[in-house]
Amino acid sequence: MPYPYEARRIFEQIFSAPNSTRRPSVxxxxxxxxxxxxxxxxxxxxxxxxxxxxxxxxxxxxxxxxRIAYLTFYPxxxxxxxxxxxxxxxxxxxxxxxxxxxxxxxxTQTGDWIELPIFLAGAAVISGASEALxxxxxxxxxxxxxxxxxxxxxxxxxxxxxxxxxxxxxxWDFDTEGNVFDACPQMREIFGxxxxxxxxxxxLFDAVVAQDRSAATEAFRAALDxxxxxxYFAQYRIRRVDDNAERWVGSQAQALFVEGKPARLIGVSRDxxxxxxxxxxxxEKAQLADQLKESERRLRVFYDSGLVGVMCWNVxxxxxxxxxxxxxxxxxxxxxxxxxxxxxIKITPPEFLPREQAAMAEVRASGATKExxxxxxxxxxxxxxxxLTAVSTLDGAGAKxxxxxxxxxxxxxxxxxLQKLHIHRFDLMKSMAAGFAHExxxxxxxAGAYAAAARRMLSSGSTGRAAEVVAETLEKTAGEVTxxxxxISRLREFISHGxxxxxxxxxxDLIRQALADSGVVADDKSKVKLQLNAxxxxxxxxxxxxxLVLVNLIRNAMQAMATxxxxxxxxxxSCDDQQIRVDVSDKGQGVSPxxxxxxxxxxxxxxxxxxxxxxxxxxxxxxxxxxxxWSKPSLDCGTIVSFALPLLxxxxxxxxxxxxxxxxxxxx
Length: 668
Hints:
The protein is built from 20 helices and 18 strands. By secondary structure, the protein is an alpha+beta fold. Strand 15 (569-575) and strand 16 form a beta hairpin.
């Protein structure tokens, strides 16, 4: 492929590498003087020699004759000629002759004229001979110097070739007109081209993998555009032509432009697969380092969050590190930890040590506990702290590790309260069942009496007014049976509810409904008075349970006044900003001081046939509604039973709902 001589010479120097071990001479490393500098140096030598000759002649002129005056210049001129060459030697000889003629020893005799030409001729011969000798010596030195330079250049070329071969660097020259590459053997080796294969641009870029081909070709086209400065740089993956092996290649080049058009692109390519592998490892290492830092940051946030106690343990029982939450849970200080006064074996109660040993065996086998387990720690003040614990090892052998501890004392208390609530509800349901059985006995007994009376009337054959009485008796019987059925329905609803179902309700409406269920009419002519003076009566209530309380209090009051000469039942309400109060007062016999303090306890009664469970059930229901119930004697005999419930507002709703939600979640 034709290309300029200079480029060919450069490539021949780069790619040809004859083996040479000759070291360059000192002359080859020196800088040769210019011709002008050499001439002046030689003239200076010749003139200096002439001056020395004159000085020598003046020193001996008294001892020699005039005829041999010129003969004294011969050694001096010979030295100048030998040192300076023909020009400087002749100049020195002429200068000496002129000085002698004009100043020192003028030529006056015939012999002097003979000696002067002889002197000049001898000087010329000696100067010419010395110049010829000098030239011969100079040519010899130049040849040796050129040989030294060539040897040194060959050594440099060999080193360059070895460096390019060791670095997998391949040089190439792209001819834009012929659209072909002149590639060195290293370049062909990188791409897997055979030595006799014609490497075109299409053949080269066909070896580039599809994902990188677009970027590589775009960079190549940009390098041939004068607007982009002619620089080419690209890194891409190739599949070698001979074995299809994937390699990374880095290429860079510089374009040569002639009259603004690209003539050729000269550059190098290098196999950078190893560098890319190292770069990938470094990138992966950097990513892992970033992930590790992020993980450490998250762990540090979790460690310092104060939500879970964290401690680092050793198998011998020592605790090497713990966060503030763990120390706070157990009541220890950071000084106690640094002084080694916290031992996880010693703070574990003896009955929990077998579970701890089983957990440690599980950690040694699998590296961590499969699921958290409950245990207790002994606080510094001796109290027990229930915790939920998870343990994992840090060394794989179970000799050291980390443990997470969650304080579950609140949950344990909630579970205990819930258990007590369930037991209380079970007892309450048993008591209510007995109470309902007692309540049902009355309407059923009345219904049986009414039915027996009606049967007797019908069997006697009565007519007229008796028929009307029978009809009224049967109607009363039906009413009592209906009332008994309503009581049974309340019992079924209460049992099916299980939990107290609090919903907004108007207490005044519940009072009126309870009077109707009790068969009592409240008006100005009856013995029952309603004084519903509360400005607000909306509460959160379970209507079934609260109606049972009202019916129970009304019936107790009516029964207390059964034998009283003056009977009057007053149901009054009042309220403030927080709660509504209900007072049920009667004019009965009252309650003795001995029974008043235990009136709301189970099986405490003032009635001869009573079971003593009605008021205890009422207290349980009122307290489940977040209220209170009490009794006191009336001023003019009798008893006043009162209870208070919180009025419905946003704060009470949220508080009660939160308590109910907490109980439900704790039960789960």
